[in-house]
Amino acid sequence: MARSKTWTLLLGTSISAAALAAACGSSGNGSSGDTSSSGDAGGPSGNGGAGGELLDTTGPGAPSSLTISPQNAVLDVDGTPRSLQFTAALADGSAPGSVTWEVSDIVVGTIDTQGELTSKGLVAGVATVTARSGALTASTTVTVRVQIVDNPGNVSPEDQVDLQNGGSADPNLRFLYPYDKTVFPRGLRAPDLQLAGWSADATYVRLTVPGFTYEGFFGASNPTQVVLPQDVWRALTLSASGTDDVRVEVTTLAGGQVTGPVSETWRIAPGDFKGSIYYNTYRSAQTNGAAILRVRPNVDAQIFISGCTVCHSVSANGNVLVSGVDWTINNPLDSASFEIGTDGSVTQRHLADDGRKMSFGGLTPNGEWMVSNGVPQGSPVRGLEGPAPSRLYDTSTGEEVLAPSLTGAVTYALTPAFSPDGRLLSFAQYDGGANGKTIAVMDFDGSASPPAFSNLQTVATATRAIAGWPSFLPDATALVYHDGDAFDTATHGGGPRYAELRLVDVATRTVATLNQLNGRDAGGSSTLPYGEQEEGNLSYEPTVLPVAVGGYYWVVFTSRRAYGHTLAPGGTVAGSGNKWGGIVNGNEEPSLRKKLWIAAIDINHQGQADASHPAFYLGEQELLAGNMRGFMALDPCKPQGDLCESGADCCNGLFCRQTGEVNIDGEPITACVPPQSGECARIEETCETAADCCDAGALCINNHCAVPPPQ
Questions:
Q1: DSSP readout, 361-389?
Q2: What is the DSSP-derived secondary structure letter of residue 588?
Q3: Signal peptide position in this chain (predicted)?
Q4: What's 97's domain CATH number?
Q5: Does 126 reside within a domain?
Q6: What is the DSSP string of 247-277?
Q7: pLDDT by residue (tens digit) across 208-265?
């Protein structure tokens, strides 16, 4: 494991008696199926290469079948690597000629040229082992089961037993974070377990999914908190299928008294979070000033553009960012567009001397064009003064792209956003007395000359003062928007502004509440742990990841809700009971409670009263800063020959395939390559229809093969 710890051996490597019996009674012969990976479902297949030449299996009179031993083996591991030897034999029991070994999922285990399969000891699962010799093929399965006991808190053996046995119930011991029924993607930082109740001298955590068990004994904490090891979290998320409940149990020991366990369940979406999140803060702990920061999965937020460069938007493809620059009391002095490189670099594309021009602009997916955020006289978007009507601009030159079908129909399009496929534009309407209270959608055809906007329609009306910040789901059938008192999240000086997120179906104009995301039950009462009714009305500024991951859509949003006992009334971070901020020495002081949260939304949202799931805190963001306007985008795509992790990384329909080389861990290296004629697309690779995808049941969403929603 990556960090030093004491592992207690529970089960050594074993092959079950049933597996040995199967090895004696089953031939395992026949042609194997396709053992390639589908991306989200697991890791890529691995090829161990060929063993030495022993016997010709292709000439006249050659044996007609091949067998593998052991059959359907079970490998029990305890957090350390373990190996299992497979052998191949011909029907008459003799050794075959050259044998090539493959395993269908290298996350579960890798296999070498001699048929030795090695598990790293962390990830549970089932993989197919295939042997090929000449024209003959045989396959079997290997099941890896993981059971880990970890004692980073140096808890005594006697106390370990007491904690495992459990104790008395106490309603004061309860989860503050994460929330019950949360859905997490793979790849992001492990959640910190935060509980109410007494301080703990020791805490016992048990995490279980089928085939995987982790037991951790942690030391004293006040209040009770457990930082899950990142390697354990990664192993757990890789071991869980999309339909498995992760059961989490926590028991505490304080003053000789054992309390608990208390428990809840989570789900893991079988796919790694994609792309980056760009957000702004006015008081970064890294610069003591404003900045746009970038979050990559499991990497601390890093300064992306420093200074008062705020009011940003990012193209869905992640290659262009626009923003205001050098903010003053009203408008920014300038605005600019920036090019984002595949290496994470950022360079200025164009600088405009009108700060309103590119602030909060709506970018086409490739970032070529931008519809500017309209700024009327007395603009409801705080900090921007009008008039500055909406126009279509070229982001590389700053020149207006004439689009009379836009300017003839709309004067002020507030907080505009294009759909990920570039065919729709949405915005908050201001014209005709709407004053930002309705969400509109227009069709867009960028191939027309001039670019054509048409079919203006109102799809949603605010239940409060405004409806803004629309963001389309990847399939563009619906959008998420902010329904609130204002476009901002607080008044200047720290007065409250309330909002919730809602979802509207573009075709039917049916509006659905997102109660679980907002932290409410179906009746509208708060379900958040402190029970404050206003906490269910503290969700703002959504943006949606442009692709589906693991059978779900994902939305990031700003919230002023409590985060466990860290940012909360009486929280461990001083001053975090203040939701709204205030004025300090004449300057506005943002609240530390203003943070980014992420929630899953069901792909099959149509007809659901609430298609959302409870949200989770983005652990990679800065804790000691007020953060807002998270913008999810893919990373800029990579050209042919560049290394990749999945097809989502590659440009222009390229697939992500093995190069035939391996890294230092013996895992295959993959790169962006053109697809072969007739080759099917794996999960996250380019498609036109679902028929292009390799996996039965896969969906084609925003031209990417996607895992279907869990059943």
A1: PEEPTTSSEEEPPPB-TT-SSTT--S-B-
A2: E
A3: 1-21
A4: 2.60.40
A5: yes
A6: EEEEEEEETTEEEEEEEEEEEEEEEE--SEE
A7: 999 999 999 999 999 999 999 999 999 999 999 999 999 999 999 999 999 999 999 9
